[in-house]
Amino acid sequence: MNRAVTSIHIYYRGHQDALLLDYVLPILVNWQKNGRISQYAFLRYWNGGDHLRLRLFACTDEADALAQLANSFSEHLRYHPHVAQPVHDYNAYANNMRALYDKLGAVEVENIEPLRPEPGIELHPYRFEKHRYGTDEAQALSEDHFAFSSVFAGRLLKLTRDNLPARITLLMHLSMMMVGVIDDQPGAIADLFHRASQTGLLLKNHPDDSVEDTYVSRGFPTFDEQIADLEPVLTQLQYWLSGSDMSALMHVPGQSPAVQAFLHQWQVELRKRWVSLQQLDQRQLLPINPSAILMTYLHLLFNRLDIAFSLECYTYYLTAKAINHLTELNHVIR
């Protein structure tokens, strides 16, 4: 299955949340409502300079879409100017990312592009990571999820605008919901998050440092130091581990029923994708296992919400430790 996708990159280093919430997303929502596009997705990336990558599915007028977005981008720049990145800093970051990709054994990695000196908006060929998600039915399934995740992320950005602690708190709850999605023992899910937490530490201070030691050396508190603050998350997880009704997992203390229902949409979405991915895996149509794909979906939600990769991986560390803490598993996360 090949669906026409228009790929637009908006190169801009600055207040990307404001660009999305005040300009880009309202335009995309309106276009979808009026049938100018069938779906949309976005993510953030660094190659060539910080930028937004927009995916417009079944766009009826590519040139006009580019022109309208360019006009809105110009308006945004009047209030939130572009912040130039020093070339030396960009090159150092690009080299670190290349080293990380090499350690991960990544395939089909983009060539590193030179830093763009000015903000701008460009059409680019659409590149779907088939080596990660698969083709045909598998591609359509992941693209549909990316569209859902982008709409969901837009609402979460609005809900937590200029409030990073609230955003991280809700992402902790969303990460914990994976326990109610994947058909596996809690220990296996804890291991899944533990491995994900290690990804951000492949370039760590010393090869013999534990995951926890490395996070501490970078200024993050340990799980034990965070237990009091994590009490709502632990309470949420305990409902499920004790065999209570699955709906209890969506309860977020201190949040309105409307917000709780909104967050529950993420669990319902991932559960639906999990079932479909399992079916595709049985037919040998996936390049990697379904749980790894779900973790990539979660990673992309963090990306859309502009969470630093180190903070994302630290959230995974806390999630793994929380599951182990409540299940008293017989293995230790170092």
Task: Give an overview of the whole structure.
32% of the residues are buried. The protein has two domains: 5-124, no CATH class; 131-327, no CATH class. It is of the alpha+beta class. The chain has helices at residues 16-33, 62-79, 87-104, 130-133, 137-159, 164-176, 186-199, 211-217, 223-226, 231-241, 257-282, 290-304, 309-327, and strands at residues 5-11, 39-45, 51-57, 120-124. The chain is built from 13 helices and four strands. Helix 5 (137-159) runs antiparallel to helix 11 (257-282), helix 5 packs parallel to helix 12 and helix 7 (186-199) runs antiparallel to helix 13. Residues 329-334 have low confidence and may be disordered. The protein has a four-stranded antiparallel sheet. The longest helix has 26 residues, at 257-282.
In short:
This protein has 334 residues and is an alpha+beta fold.
SSE diagram, text form:
Elements: E1 5-11, H1 16-33, E2 39-45, E3 51-57, H2 62-79, H3 87-104, E4 120-124, H4 130-133, H5 137-159, H6 164-176, H7 186-199, H8 211-217, H9 223-226, H10 231-241, H11 257-282, H12 290-304, H13 309-327
Antiparallel strand pairs: 1-3, 1-4, 2-3
Helix pairs in contact: 1-2, 5-11, 5-12, 6-13, 7-13, 10-13
Descriptive tags:
2 domains; four-stranded antiparallel β-sheet; globular; single chain; disordered C terminus
Poorly predicted ranges (pLDDT <50, ≥5 residues)? 329-334
Q: Give the overall shape, derived from the CA principal axes.
A: globular
Strand content: 5-15%
Strand order of the largest sheet: 2-3-1-4
Main sheet record: 4 strands, antiparallel
Give the total of domains. 2
Discrete helix count: 13
SSE string = EHEEHHEHHHHHHHHHH
Average pLDDT for all residues: 89
| Percent in helix | 55-70%
InterPro entries: Thiopep_bacteriocin_synth_dom (IPR023809)
Organism: Spirosoma montaniterrae
Pfam families: Lant_dehydr_C
Protein name: Thiopeptide-type bacteriocin biosynthesis domain-containing protein
